[in-house]
Design brief:
Layout lengths: L2 H12 L3 H4 L4 H29 L2 H35 L15 H11 L10 H17 L13 H9 L3 H10 L13 H22 L3 H32 L4 H11 L7 H14 L11 H4 L9 H26 L15 H22 L5 H34 L1
Helix pairs in contact: 4-5, 4-14, 4-15, 5-14, 6-9, 6-14, 8-11, 9-10, 10-12, 10-16, 12-14, 12-16, 14-15
Length: about 400
């Protein structure tokens, strides 16, 4: 008759909140969690009242849209982590997370709760203000970049309007896009969207340098220097890749680039070398395998964030995965038609669904590359950026410019 207590004990061990239920200081832990949640609610309510008081009704709607997108983005980042662990487990023939919730789907919530209740540790001889400020900068910049990303048509039936409009011609399309630009579900649809994205992504280097310097650790500082050099090197390649897209579309606006691909076809076909270089460069830009040299465990322990813990470590984590989703979105918009299906028999699909499927494919490729390829040496990484991608893209850009000038002269 001793099997019942053993069985109950095993069930308790399997339960995902066993660390709180079986803790001697359960009340103290629950009070700490409730205090965190109440603090977030009070701060959010105060900010919301201030914004409602400050802005007009139309601006309040924009604020609501921004908050909804931020929440959806954070949820997507959380479940991107479990998708990565599941795919990696399938490739390596193991189970992966499957205990917390049905099929392990509550694992991101458990991880977030764990980081929320952990103690915030600041190194003794570090600069505490700058130490805490660095992850806030990285997370804020990663969220700001999403403000200009169009997520598709807000009205599903507008697909028919678009395809009837494309038959009129390119010039009419340019004029009508500016008139009907509010149909796209973007927060800030600025004309120089690509330039804004490049500017914000270049500012991420400052957050990483600040984090490495403020930690007062040689390992963190070396990791920050590696990451800064890597990001700057591959921003040059990404900029040269984007220039042919701008030449073919004649615009820096992301929405117009998508619509023009509805006429000319996806840019991946005429610009296939650019798409390949952009995909490899975005792996290096986001510090992902096989280019994850800034967090090489053998020599740098964990890179620039080695001294971080608790929620400020989670901010680095959220910023990294948010940038991965952003790069997947950007390559979809620039080369694969954004939310346009590309085939007329797929016009019945909602634009947001088409967009999400394309982004999910590139997120899967992120994970597949991590599982399949070994890590490069740092000198190999720099050689690829400066001695391979830079000359190839410079030559391709000159070839494309010459071809467009030749076509223009022949038409005239």
């Amino acid at each position: 008759m001793r099997f019942k207590p053993i069985l109950l004990l095993e069930i308790k061990k399997r339960f995902w909140l066993n660390s709180i239920i079986m803790n001697k200081h359960t009340k103290k832990t629950l009070v700490l969690i409730l205090a965190h949640l109440m603090g977030f609610l009070i701060v959010g309510y105060v900010i919301w009242v201030f914004l409602c008081f400050l802005y007009s009704n139309q601006s309040v709607f924009k604020v609501i849209l921004i908050l909804v997108k931020i929440i959806c983005l954070l949820i997507s980042v959380a479940y991107f982590t479990i998708a990565e662990r599941k795919v990696m487990a399938a490739i390596q023939r193991r189970r992966g997370p499957n205990v917390v919730g049905f099929w392990g789907l509550l694992q991101p919530l458990a991880d977030g709760l764990k980081l929320l209740v952990k103690e915030l540790l600041v190194p003794t001889k570090s600069n505490p203000i700058i130490f805490v400020f660095a992850p806030i900068v990285i997370l804020t910049l990663s969220l700001v970049s999403w403000s200009i990303v169009p997520f598709g048509l807000s009205v599903t039936g507008e697909n028919d309007f678009f395809y009837s409009l494309t038959s009129v011609g390119y010039e009419t399309l340019k004029i009508d896009i500016l008139d009907y630009i509010f149909y796209t579900a973007s927060v800030a649809n600025i004309k120089c969207g690509l330039l804004f994205l490049l500017a914000v992504s270049s500012l991420n280097v400052y957050g990483i340098i600040i984090a490495g310097w403020a930690s007062n650790s040689k390992y963190a500082f070396l990791g920050a220097l590696r990451s800064a050099a890597q990001m700057i090197s591959y921003e040059v390649s990404i900029s040269l890749v984007i220039l042919p897209v701008i030449l073919l579309s004649g615009s820096l606006n992301l929405t117009e680039i998508v619509y023009i691909q509805g006429i000319t076809g996806w840019f991946v076909f005429p610009l296939l070398p650019c798409a390949i270089v952009f995909f490899i460069s975005m792996l290096a830009e986001t510090n992902r395998a096989p280019f994850d040299l800034p967090e090489a465990e053998a020599e740098l322990v964990a890179g620039y964030n080695v001294e971080y813990s608790s929620m400020i470590f989670a901010m680095f984590f959220l910023g990294e995965y948010s940038n991965m989703l952003l790069m997947s979105t950007l390559i979809t918009i620039l080369f694969f038609g954004g939310w346009l299906p590309g085939f007329f028999y797929l016009n019945f699909m909602p634009s947001s669904l088409v967009f999400s499927i394309k982004i999910a494919i590139f997120c899967f490729l992120f994970i597949l590359v991590r599982a399949a390829f070994p890590r490069y040496r740092y000198d190999q990484l720099m050689n690829i950026g400066w001695k391979v991608f830079l000359p190839i893209m410079s030559g391709f850009l000159l070839l494309l410019v010459g071809y467009l000038i030749l076509i223009n002269d022949h038409v005239q």
